[in-house]
Amino acid sequence: MNHPIIPIVVLDDAVKQRKRQAPKGRRVDPAALAEVQSLLRETSRQPDMLIEHLHKIQDRFGHLSAAHLAALAQEMGMAQTEVYEVATFYHHFDVVKEGQSAPAALTVRVCDGLSCEMAGAKDLLAKLPALLGREVRVISAPCIGRCEHAPAAVVGQNPVPMASAELILAAVRAQAIRHEPAGFMDLAAYRAAGGYVLLQQCLAGERDVESVIKTLEDAGLRGLGGAGFPAGRKWRIVRAETAPRLMAINIDEGEPGTFKDRTYLERDPHRFLEGMLIAAWAVGIAKIYIYLRDEYHGCRHMLEAELDKLRLTPPMAGMPEIELRRGAGAYICGEESAMIESIEGKRGLPRLRPPYVAQVGLFGRPTLEHNFETLHWVRELLEKGGAWFASHGRHGRKGLRSFSVSGRVKQPGVKLAPAGITVQELIDEHCGGMLDGHTLYGYLPGGASGGILPASLNHIPLDFDTLQAYGSFIGSAAVIVLSDKDSASDAARNMMRFFQHESCGQCTPCRVGTAKAVTLMNKTSWDLALVAELSQVMRDASICGLGQAAPNPMDSVVKYFPQELS
């Protein structure tokens, strides 16, 4: 048998000894490195600061160039791929590859969330490009947390409530950030009104940890970010874990229709901060991280200033270090473990559980994770007692709820109302009724995730555990009201487009399922058998609540609004 002859190549000594002139990958431009070093100055180069540093570069240059990403990677001692994958994960980072043009210096984001779509956001998006010209980039954006002022827009970092083409044009010309809304209470005003006295009582031993936690339990205070886990029980669980313990606070309210945290934060930030410090004292927290959504630029500037004042005159000896971290436009980071990943400087991918955040959370330490509003209530509950809070409520429910109400009502906004109030009572007693010429057709009791209920179910108490039998839940208590001039199927399509856009992509049932659902829902006639099968797979197999709850609006239309599908 003849075998093929394989030539042998002998490398000469010069080839064997030749060394690579530069490391593999993109070379770092010295000018870009100098610019990055100038921006970072003396701040930490630890990996958890990556997102903060990406913000600094984008704020300065308006985008993230390949040269700056490579320079940042070298400066932080990270692989360029690590930096790139984080930068491209978050919607608010504009990564410009080699050969691409940088975006316009100014970006106008028009919210296309349900409340804003109902208020005319589509028409606004159609008009603005011709009006503003090529010097301004106009893009649609998911809910920006200003649903009571629909349609809402953001010009650069400046919100424009009840936006019109004329108001946006004026904002483009003005370019000024509004820091403090009317009624804002700074540190001096808060202390003058008795602020931080309760914390001093705790520190002085006038109140003990057991009595404080027992008050929260008697009040029935639950997590108010959507999950509803009992706050007192969470404090006990984390307190029992080995020190050091950390705290992570979620102010990334990205659920469409939700704006309660922003409303309270921009008026009375120290009520929340005092509740936070009481929780830190009770649980034994070594360090606190506050995660604030990037859309709330004015709140960030205000909170930075108030935290600086608090550090100068701390209300407690040995006050835990407090770090304010900035989100970057990712709804998934409202999920507690995804938020923790983001604080650690990574992509906001939800973790598999167990272990749970209370045991293995931020930087591997036991972590007390809370929504802003939960801590906002702590002072008032301890001053007035758990029985006071529990004495409120209707239809057999206990407590108070902050409802973010938007849509077809005369007076949208945050409404503090008894837990268990019905949507009809909420509209009539707190919102001035429906808009003239509009009749209640349906409502979303818990934002995008909570499903859509018909007007015939306007008598259901709105609270934790009262809506599940109807295929719905209250979540963060974001109530969006639909009228007879709206379509539930259009609302469901809006919600599913949002979920498709915001899926982190980690698991196939959510990543592919939301995209497939959008395709199915855009058809004139829905394939109901396929819709049901898809919904079941997403619920059963998705890693986190985004994919598990995404089918709710779609399923609600099939169940309660079949007339729209025929």
Key words describing this protein structure:
566 residues; alpha/beta; 5-stranded mixed beta sheet; 4-stranded mixed beta sheet; 42% helix
What does this entry look like structurally?
The strands form 4 sheets. A 5-stranded mixed β-sheet has the order 12-11-15-13-14, sandwiched between helices. It has 566 residues and is α/β, with parallel strands linked by helices. 47% of the residues are buried. It is built from 25 helices and 15 strands. Helix content is 42%, strand content 14%. α4 (66-76) packs across α5 (80-89) and α21 packs antiparallel against α22 (508-521).
Secondary-structure map:
Blueprint: H1 13-17, H2 30-40, H3 50-61, E1 64-65, H4 66-76, H5 80-89, E2 95-96, E3 106-111, H6 114-118, H7 121-132, E4 136-141, E5 153-155, E6 158-160, H8 165-174, H9 187-192, H10 197-203, H11 209-219, H12 231-239, E7 245-251, H13 260-265, H14 269-283, E8 285-292, H15 297-312, E9 321-326, H16 336-343, E10 367-371, H17 372-376, H18 378-384, H19 386-390, E11 400-407, E12 413-418, H20 423-430, E13 440-448, E14 453-454, E15 478-483, H21 488-502, H22 508-521, H23 528-541, H24 545-549, H25 552-560
Parallel strand pairs: 1-2, 3-4, 7-8, 7-10, 8-9, 11-15
Antiparallel strand pairs: 3-5, 5-6, 11-12, 13-14, 13-15
